[in-house]
Each structure stands twice: as structure tokens, then as C-alpha cells.
Amino acid sequence: MRTGHDVAVIGAGPIGCAAAIAFARSGATVLLLESNPRTSERFAGEWIHPSGVRILKSLSLGDLEALVETGPKRGFVVHPDDGSDPIVLPYPDGMTAASFDHSELVSELRRRAAALPGIDYVAPARLTKLSPAPAYVEGESGAEIRIEAKQIVAADGRRSGTRRLLGLADGSVGISFMGGIVLNDVDLPVEGYGHVMSGGPGPIMIYRIGANKVRMCLDIPTSATSLRRDPEALYDAVAPGLPTTMAKALAVSLKARKPAWMETRFQTRTEYGRGNVALVGDAVGCTHPLTAIGISLGLMDVEALLDSVDAADYARQQRAAVRVPEMLSNALYQVFSDNRYDAVAIRRSMYDVWRTDAAERHRTMGLLAATDLRGRSFATSFFRIGFKAARKTVGSQAREGRWRRVRHSLSRFVSWSTWPLAGLLPGYRKIPAHLTAPRVGRPG
Ligand SMILES: Cc1cc2nc3c(=O)[nH]c(=O)nc-3n(C[C@H](O)[C@H](O)[C@H](O)COP(=O)(O)OP(=O)(O)OC[C@H]3O[C@@H](n4cnc5c(N)ncnc54)[C@H](O)[C@@H]3O)c2cc1C
């Protein structure tokens, strides 16, 4: 193996592999280290938005879509919890996403990276220190080996050890738990789309990851330990919100296997590294998987890092680029998971607006795809939806003369207005209070 690489990439998850491939294709020699190759077997990112697919294509990885033989994904279908008809939300301008089985995606990316002549892939190998000189411990021999690289790219995921070694705080907060389970021999309500349902203990996402494999993602509050332990209780809690065929397929799968549970976390994306150590992917920050944006943001990090003149330029570019996707993720999760009357009113208003207004569908999907990164777009959408919800709720309470309720509703909707305001204020970032507050149950 070579010594004195141009770049050392720490972590061979999806983003570390993409970073290694991108640097190698630009002519650099790369050392790619992976501490635990089996981490790819956990349940994690599988849906890649058009912004991420574009970057994969630019790295000559566009043919990865063939991995699942299920074709391009055209957008999402939202199944309202008020029993009304599903709403189809296509990506704008014919753009498409891709979805994979996480472990198949990461295994293939590692294989592609290891096959490139510019990359030395070492696994298992764990970065253990950055000073006085960076070093890793090689898993098999236990030997500590010094890293002689001009630049270090840390793609070691959320709870990044490199972040800690740089003295950067882990400010992440737990949001919920998400269980992933595979359903076999089942058709999606509409093929070629991801599906989102709400109204149960948390939002549910369903998408195809293989010719005979559909992934169901079940989000539940952190406090609902019984739902994680007891498959029957889980089924009873989520099945009422599912189309009948999906509920039947879930019952069959739950008899055969347990869901793979992962904690979901939020870490705002502000720190991009120090000196010659750059952070990319979840090492920078992470959001709830509902908007499935983690891999696409990580790929945007890789693209920006290669494109930037120095570390400050990289951080500046990305802080500006990721603000809206990060806010969208938090705001949508709040709208889909909160079951208080004001959140339900906003959810229903969102369904109405999507159902009746093609321009709003277009704008929402541009924001979700991370092809529209403008705070103004986010603010306009959120304001319209929130204002309609407030007018309808407060109006009917006022007509009934329920003035105490009117006062309460006004204060609730004013608190929601921080979202559109945040969209308009460059640099505004906050951890929404609801992420740390206990989740409120279904409306009575
Ligand atoms: C339940 C769930 C569902 C999700 N669904 C989606 C989705 O559909 N779409 C989407 O875009 N995102 C999704 N995400 C987010 C997505 O999984 C992450 O954004 C993505 O995996 C980040 O990739 P990464 O390479 O930065 O980090 P990781 O995938 O965490 O990879 C980090 C790698 O670094 C290795 N490592 C750690 N420490 C060291 C060390 N000291 N030395 C060497 N190697 C080290 C680890 O073993 C690991 O292989 C989901 C997340 C969760 C939890």
C-alpha cells in the first residue's frame, strides 16, 4: 500500500465512499478507512433525492440505479389521515430519485471505491487520534499506523469521533425511534413513488427497494418502549393508518421478523471542520429521516468540498445551502407527528393546498428534492398553509363565541409562525422545542 496519500477519508459509509471516489476521480490518492464494515447492515438511508442522484451521476455512479431494477422514483404520494383521497406529489420538471437497500448500496459503493486505482481501502481500521499526528489502529494486527495525508475528510457519521477529537461538541438531540421492516410480495398503492402516512403514533414511509422488497419505516415516540418490544401492540397502533394491502403485508412480516429499530436524531449543520480536517455527511449534522435528505446533503458536502478554495469557503457554501432542507425536515416532521388540534389543522390545510394548487405542489417538491434552496420559497409555502389553517380554526371558534379558545388558538398559530419567519432570516437556526418535548398523543 502507498504511504503519503493526498487525502485520508475516515469512514466508508455512503458519504465516505462518495468522497473517496470524488477525490480519486479528481486525480488525488486516497486512503479510505472503515472501522466496522458491518455497520452497513443496519437500517439507514435508502432514498436519494434528485439533487443526490445528480451528484452520483457526476461521479460516474449513475448506473447504481440499476442495483434495484425498480426504476426511477418520481415523487411521493401522501395518504391523508382524514380519510380523503391520496395526493400525488411528483418531483418538478420530470426529475427522479432512487431508492436502495442500505446495505446493498453501501457494499456496492465500497466495492466501486476499492476497485479504483487511486484508492487504498483499509478495513477494519479505526481513526484513533488526530494529534500530535493523525493515526489509525488496524483491526487485524492492532498496530497503530500514522496517517501521512495532506487533508483528512471525516465521514464517520453522527456521533462522529473525529468531531470529538477536534473538540467540537456533539449537540445532537434524540427525536424518536424508527423501525424498518421489509414487506415481500406486495404492490405499492402507486408504484414508482414513495408513500407517506400520518395520524398514528408517528409518520410512516413506504417505498420499494427491490423487485420483491418494499421498505416500511415506522416512526414512534421515544417513550413508546412497549411498541418497540411488542409486535402485536405495534401492529395495532399503526395498522389503522395503512391501506389494507399494506396492513396485511405488515402482519405477515411482523410474524417472520422484528423491525430493525434506529434512534432518529437532530444535529444542526454548523461545524464543517478545523484546519486540514473537513467534516462531511452526518459528521456535520443529521435530521429526521422523514424528508430522506441525509445522503443527498452529504453528497452536496462532497461536491462543495471539492469545489471550494479553502475550509472557510467550504463551510460558508454549505451553511447557506443546507439551511432550508434542514428547516424543512424539522417543520414537516412537526406537522406530521404532532397530533394537537393546531398541528392537525395545519396538516389538513397542507393537504388542501397540495390538492388544489399545482404551483404549490411544484414548490414543495423542489424544496424536498433540495433543488430549491431559497428561504423565501420555504417561507411562502409555510405561511400560506399556516395562515389558511389559522383562519379556518379561529374563524369557526369565533362564530361559536368560544373566545378563550380563540385566544389559545391565536397563541398556538403565532408559535408556528416562527417557521416562515425563520425562512426569511438568513442564518436563523434553532432546535425546535418540540424535538425535545414529549410527543402529544392522537386527538380524541
Ligand atoms: C432510520 C434511518 C433512516 C434513514 N433514511 C434515509 C433516507 O431514506 N434517505 C437519506 O438520504 N437519508 C436517510 N437517513 C440518513 C442517512 O442514513 C445518513 O445521512 C447517511 O447514512 C450518512 O452517511 P455517512 O456516510 O455520513 O455516515 P454513516 O452512514 O453513519 O457512515 C459512517 C461510517 O464511518 C465508520 N466509522 C465511524 N467511526 C470511524 C472511525 N473512527 N474510523 C473509521 N471509520 C469509522 C462507520 O463504521 C460507518 O461505516 C436515515 C437515517 C436513519 C437513522
Provide a compact summary of the structure.
The protein has 444 residues and is α/β, with parallel strands linked by helices.
Write the layout of secondary structure elements.
Layout: E1 5-10, H1 14-25, E2 30-33, E3 47-48, H2 50-58, E4 75-79, E5 87-90, E6 98-99, H3 102-115, E7 119-122, E8 125-129, E9 135-138, E10 144-146, E11 149-154, H4 161-165, E12 173-184, E13 193-197, E14 204-210, E15 213-221, H5 225-229, H6 231-238, H7 244-256, E16 260-266, E17 273-274, E18 277-279, H8 294-307, H9 311-337, H10 341-356, H11 358-368, H12 375-399, H13 403-416, H14 418-424
Parallel strand pairs: 1-2, 1-11, 2-7, 4-13, 11-18
Antiparallel strand pairs: 3-6, 4-5, 8-9, 9-10, 12-15, 12-16, 13-14, 14-15, 17-18
Helix pairs in contact: 1-3, 1-8, 2-8, 6-7, 8-9, 9-10, 10-12, 12-13, 12-14
This protein binds flavin-adenine dinucleotide.
Flavin-adenine dinucleotide binds at residues 10-16, 33-36, 39, 43-48, 126-127, 155-157, 161, 178, 262, 264, 281-283, 286, 289, 292-296, 298.
